[in-house]
Amino acid sequence: MRSNEEFARYIDATLLKPNVTQEDMRQHLEAARRFHFKTVAIGCAWIPYAKELLAESDVGIDAPIGFPNGYSTTESKVFETIDAFAKGATEADILINIGWLRSGRYAELEDELKRFVAAAGGKVTKVILENYYLTDEQKREGVRIVKRAGADFVKTSTGFAAAGATLDDVRLMVQEAGDSLQVKASGGIRTREFAEQLLDIGATRLGASNPHLLMV
């Protein structure tokens, strides 16, 4: 098993519930700073507050784009990306238009993701497929589109669907991603054992909403 210090740097500590209070957020940010998680994944309106509280720390700020449904317009997603980075985000996770992928509208989806990557201006970009709604072939096609768009990561889930990351999905995505794309597993990661298994089969980032419980 990886040391806690090594393990923590795989974690995007997630707090994306709509009813989060400032006190909830403060506690989340302080825990992330204490454990040295890779990033905090938080609602974009909280980014300036997080930037202030995480100053001088090694914890980045991960912005959710097009959350939690993915069907906002490309133009709004691009603006949200630019705005999030301007306010202090260091990474961004965009949810694809799931309906476009399921409908075979691959060119439009690829164009949206290319515009997202361009708007990020060289910052770390992750693309969420929301695998719960997809067939295995749609997952594979989604990974191929993300690769062509030039993003850094492809991600399994938002955590808002009925199911999240699975070992089978991560294996499929790692196989399709090859060496040019990393895989982030997210959703339903509640034990250190499962988290370690996901890393062992090739995930290089984990999204977890209760990451302190994984620090054993």
UniProtKB/TrEMBL annotation:
This entry carries the following GO cellular component terms, namely: cytoplasm
- Look up the signal peptide feature and give its range: none
Spell out the Pfam families in the cross-references: DeoC
UniProt EC number = 4.1.2.4
Subcellular location(s) of the protein: Cytoplasm
What this protein catalyses is: 2-deoxy-D-ribose 5-phosphate = D-glyceraldehyde 3-phosphate + acetaldehyde
Its UniProt pathway annotation is:
Carbohydrate degradation; 2-deoxy-D-ribose 1-phosphate degradation; D-glyceraldehyde 3-phosphate and acetaldehyde from 2-deoxy-alpha-D-ribose 1-phosphate: step 2/2
Catalytic positions are: 93, 155, 184
Q: Can you tell which superkingdom this protein's organism belongs to?
A: Bacteria
Q: Which GO terms describe its biological process?
A: 2-deoxyribose 1-phosphate catabolic process; carbohydrate catabolic process; deoxyribonucleotide catabolic process
Q: Which UniProt keywords apply?
A: Cytoplasm, Lyase, Schiff base
Q: List, alphabetically, the SUPFAM superfamilies matched.
A: Aldolase
Picking any one GO molecular function of the record gives:
deoxyribose-phosphate aldolase activity
What job does the chain carry out?
Catalyzes a reversible aldol reaction between acetaldehyde and D-glyceraldehyde 3-phosphate to generate 2-deoxy-D-ribose 5-phosphate.
Instruction: Please state which protein family the record places this protein in.
Output: Belongs to the DeoC/FbaB aldolase family. DeoC type 1 subfamily.
Name under which the protein is recorded: Deoxyribose-phosphate aldolase
Annotated gene:
deoC
